[in-house]
Hints:
The protein is mostly helical.
Amino acid sequence: MNRNPLNAYRQTKVKTAGQGRLIVMLYDEAIKQLDHADHELKKQDAKLDIVHNCIVKTQDIVTELMASLDFEKGGDIAQNLYNLYMFFNQQLMEANIQKKPEYLKDTRHLLAELRVAWASIEGKTAAPANPVSVGVNIAG
């Protein structure tokens, strides 16, 4: 039994979310982690372990997004997303090595754009009569 109400709420939110909502939640968390890393890097006394952990969490999220792609249903869209996610991981790796916020900027901007697109898709397909495949399978 989970004694922390916030953790219980989060777990319930994830377990009851639809596929599109889960993708949006992943983008939200990735953006949050990048913002935290960026904020920390800009401090005079930046704690590099915090920066590292935020970047690694973002890489984990991007890797999860990559693993969720369905290339059969998604075709070119899935391939384009895969290529973007590869770019994100390269940028994040460089950001983690260099510890410079400018390496986070492009990735954060593109993640935010993708998040808006997915939120729009999720809003339109919340309860469709015939579900539309967008090329992502996060169910495994």
